[in-house]
Structure formats: C-alpha cells, structure tokens
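#struct-queue
[09:14] JT: dropping the first one here, sequence first, then the structure tokens:
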Amino acid sequence: MSKNIDIHVGSRLRRTREFRGLSQRELALALRLTVERLDAFERGAARLSASVLFAASQRLGVDGSFFFKGLKGFEDAGREAIAAEPSGRNGNVYAFPSSRARLGPASAGETPPTKLCL
C-alpha cells in the first residue's frame, strides 16, 4: 500500500510541476535537491519527507493535502479525524475516532483547538 501512495504522490508532484511550467532542474534547485532525487520522488521510487512535501507545496502553490487527493479513502479519513470537544479537567485531552491523544498543556491564554485541521 505505501508504495502505491509514493507513486500517487510523486505523480501529482510531477503533473503539478509540469502544469506550472517548471523543469525538474528548476524545482530541484528550489527544493535544494538533486535532479536525480526529484526524479526518484516523481516516479515513486523514493518517499518524500514531510519537509520536502511542505516545501514543494509552497513552491507549487498548492495545499499539502493536494498530493494525497484521489487516494482511496483519503477524503473519508479527513472527515473522521475531526476531534471532539476537549475533555478532562485541564482541557488538553482530545477524542479521536479510534484513539485518544494527550497533548501538552496549552500556553497561558491559549485556547485549545477543537478540531484537527488536515
């Protein structure tokens, strides 16, 4: 499954780069990668790190989630990730569909988030 995701993300990266009129060399320079490494990402032969994916989304002018659109189950997973209202005395425990995540205490005056933004 993960290989299919790498191929899907890489394909969307390539198509977006081409749509924006950038060569592999231009995007590789902007992302501080070699052309060979970018090519491996675009073919799905290598997995992009979160930092490279974020930089690519910024350079190409798309949201980070754009690269995952069209994956089976992606849209459903986003809807299921909406968190419940804070529970517990300190207000920093959030309920997720199949688990509970414990977040660190909020900074003074900071309102804890009520939903997970993807």
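[09:21] JT: and here's the second one, same format:
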Amino acid sequence: MKGEPLPPPLPPASRTVGQVVAEAIALYRSNFAWALALGLPVALADQVAAHAAEAASTAAGLLFRDLSIDFPLNVSVVQSYADAGKPGAPVAPDAGQAEE
C-alpha cells in the first residue's frame, strides 16, 4: 500500500471529511517546524501571564516587606495589541486572566 500512488483529490465542494483531515495531517507533517512556530506562542500565553503575575507578587514582597502596599498588575491575553488595556476587549480563545 505504501508505494501505490494516491488517487487525485476531489474538487473542494465534494471532498470528504477524511480526505480533508488526511490532507491537513500531511501538510502539518511536511511543515512541522512552521506549524509549531505558529502554535507555540498561543499555547504559552497563559503560562507567561501567570508567571508575570507571580513575579509581580514576589517583587512586591521583596520591595515592601511588611508594608501593606498593593502592587497592581493586570495581565490579559487578547487577540490584538490594539485591544490591550481596553475594558471589555475580546479575550483570546482559551486564554484566562491572571490578576495580582
């Protein structure tokens, strides 16, 4: 089966789900580094936001010790830099908010 040529692809309107999935898998397999480069920042956004909030909390503890000073830091993951800091801005899918 491995050496047999594949049948020609169907026109886009009549492709089966299996054929679309198989073509997508083949595309990602042949371009794995590019696919990883596209998806990695999105996957790490929540961890970066959580670490930034934790670092702000640690910095506040080191700088102000026993004083009750609030060190505000609001981190949110948005779809566009233009939306950052706007109240009610659409949040990126699957992105939580970390506040400290």
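[09:30] RK: nice, looked through the second one.
[09:31] RK: The radius of gyration is 23 Å.
[09:31] JT: good to know. Residues 32-64 form the longest helix (33 residues).
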